[in-house]
TrEMBL record:
Organism, as annotated: Amycolatopsis decaplanina DSM 44594
Protein name: LuxR family transcriptional regulator
Gene3D superfamilies (UniProt xref): Winged helix-like DNA-binding domain superfamily/Winged helix DNA-binding domain
InterPro entries cross-referenced by the UniProt entry: WH-like_DNA-bd_sf
Length: 215
């Protein structure tokens, strides 16, 4: 058995970017997979301009879950990045939150439930290639931002009211009537909303919506 030494465990985003900022600046090929825009510090609102500057003269690929499109501000941010040249796709399956730099370094986010999130910085070629293969599979199975958002617009407009109905226990019949749609249509939209939020039941909606800043 061979011990792997090309892995560094880093705690917290401040330390992560202190130690890897030079890699982002030097990289010409950046691939990112994340549940939302707040997984990585460079995507936080206070650092949006810095993240946008990285798009120029680089190949940027970003893969997100549908929940990023429920918020108008984050949706506009993604379209702005796309306009600057970044390739952005939306996937409905669970993804490992990962950044790949020039196919040589992989950064993987740890459990976000802990007080200080940890990150693994991996440079071992065999491991990086395996992670890259998983990313490419998820990328090919996803949908372009423009295509996905075109059919997502109605859900985004209805999301605030639907979230209110779901979190207050409003009956489907009453909610559907308030939105001017049939019960079956409403229930289908609720199912689509659950997918967008990345949850599997209505009981999880409140907590997840608060995590995304939708409530």
């Amino acid at each position: 058995m061979e011990l792997v030494s090309d892995i560094s465990l880093i705690r917290g985003e401040e330390e992560l970017f202190d130690r890897t900022a030079h890699l982002f600046v030097a990289a010409t090929d950046i691939a990112c997979a994340a549940d939302d825009l707040y997984t990585w510090a460079l995507s936080r609102p206070s650092l949006t301009r810095q993240g946008e500057r990285l798009v120029h003269d680089k190949r940027i690929r970003k893969l997100y879950r549908p929940g990023v499109l429920l918020n108008e501000q984050t949706a506009q941010h993604l379209h702005r990045l796309s306009g600057l040249g970044a390739q952005i796709r939306i996937g409905t399956e669970e993804i490992n939150e990962t950044i790949l730099l020039d196919e040589r370094v992989a950064i993987m986010a740890g459990d976000e439930g802990k007080a200080v999130r940890s990150y693994s910085v991996i440079s071992r070629p065999e491991l990086v290639q395996g992670i890259l293969s998983l990313f490419e599979t998820a990328w090919l199975a996803s949908t372009t931002l423009e295509t996905f958002d075109a059919r997502f617009a109605d859900i985004r407009m209805e999301a605030p009211q639907m979230l209110e109905f779901l979190t207050t226990g409003c009956k489907d019949e009453k909610a559907a009537k308030s939105l001017g749609m049939g019960v079956r249509t409403y229930q289908r939209r609720v199912s689509e909303l659950l997918v967008a939020l990345g949850v599997t039941s209505r009981l999880q909606v409140d907590a997840r919506a608060r995590e995304l800043g939708l409530l």
